[in-house]
Amino acid sequence: MTSQDLTFAVLGAGHGGQALAGYLSLKGFSVNLFNRTPERIGSIKLMGGIQLEGEISGFAPLNVVTHNIEEALRGVKVIMVVTPANAHRFLAELMSPYLEDEQIVVLNPGRTGGALEVRQVFKEQEVKAKVIVAEAQTFLFASRISGPAQARIFRIKNSIPVAAIPAYKTVEVVQALRRALPQFVPEDNVLKTSFSNIGAVFHPTLTILNAARIESTRGEFDYYLEGITPSVALILEAVDRERVQVAEALGVRVNTAREWLYYAYDASGRNLYEAIQNNPGYKGIRAPTTLFTRYITEDVPMSLVPISSFGKMLGVPTPTIDVFIRLANLMHGRDYVAEGRTVEKLGVAGMGIKEIREMVVSGGEGSE
Prior knowledge:
There is one protein chain. The protein is α/β, with parallel strands linked by helices. It has 2 domains: about 10-195, Rossmann fold; about 195-335, Orthogonal Bundle (N-(1-d-carboxylethyl)-l-norvaline Dehydrogenase, domain 2), CATH 1.10.1040. Helix content is about 45%, strand content about 15%. An 8-stranded mixed sheet has the order 5-2-1-6-7-8-11-12, with helices on both faces. It has a 4-stranded mixed sheet with strand order 4-3-10-9. The longest helix has 20 residues, at about 230-250. The relative contact order is 0.12.
C-alpha cells in the first residue's frame, strides 16, 4: 500500500481534526475533511486546505472539504473520527448507510467504550459493509486552531496505543495507520484502551472539586499544580482505584494514575500528590474558564458513566465515581447517566466476563 492508495477521511474540524487533516496531507496522503456544520469549514474550503504551524509547517491541500458525509467517506480507506466522544453515536448513525467494505474507522480517542458503542450502532443500523472499528487511547497531538484555515501542532506524542474490535484485527489497523502515523502501536484489546482512560480520573473530578475557584477566578490558576492539594489527591486516588478495580474484574490490568505519570512524564512520588507536583509538564496548564467544559460534559457521560455501569453489572462498587456523576448532574441540571454510555448502549448488558472478553477478542454478531 502506497501513499496514493492509503486515503483518509477526517471527521470533525475542531482543534484536533484540522491539525490531523493538515498533518496527513503534508505527509503526502489524500485527505477528505468533514464537519457537520458548514460554517466551521467555510474558510478551509475557500483556501482549499489548511496552513499548519508548529511541529510541522506548510500549506496542506485537502482533496475534499465537505459537510456531506457520503462525499467524505466515498472511496477512502481510513476514517479518523476526531470529535468529542459525545458525537460518536451520532456520527456512527450518520455514516452507517455509506460505509464500504474494508474501511477502517478509528476513534481518536475512544474515551471509555467508544469502539463498543460504535460497533453496537453499526449492528443496530444493520450495516452490511465489512468494516473494522478501532479506538486510540489518547489523541496524537496537542494542537489548537490558530486562525481561519490555520492550525498549530504544539506537540506530537511518541506512542499512541490503539486496539480494534475484534482484537485480532488490530494488527491490520496498525499496519495501515503506521504508513502515515508511525506513533500508533498495538494494544491488547478495546477494554485495555478504554479503561486506560486517565482523563476519567483527572478531568471531571478535579473540575468539580475546584468548582468555586473556577467560577470565582474564571480559571486563573494552574489546574494541576494548584488545583490538586493533598486532600484533593486522596479523592483522585479513590476514583482511580475504582477504575482499576472495574478493569480488573474484566480481566484487564491497567496502569494506576501514579504509574501513568511515571511512564508518560517520568514523574514519580510516594503518592499521587507528589507525582503530580513533580511533573514539570503540568506547569502553566490553566484551569477551564467555566464549569461548562468538556471535562464534565464529555468526561462524565463518556468516561465515568461507563465505568460505573460496568461496575454495577459486575458487582464492583464505584461509590466515589457515583458521587461525581451525581454532582455533575446537579451542577448542570442534566442526567448524565441517561445521556452517557451504559452497558445497554454498549451492547454488553447481561453478558458475563467470559462473553465480553470473547466478543472483544474474537468478535461476534455485526460489523467486523
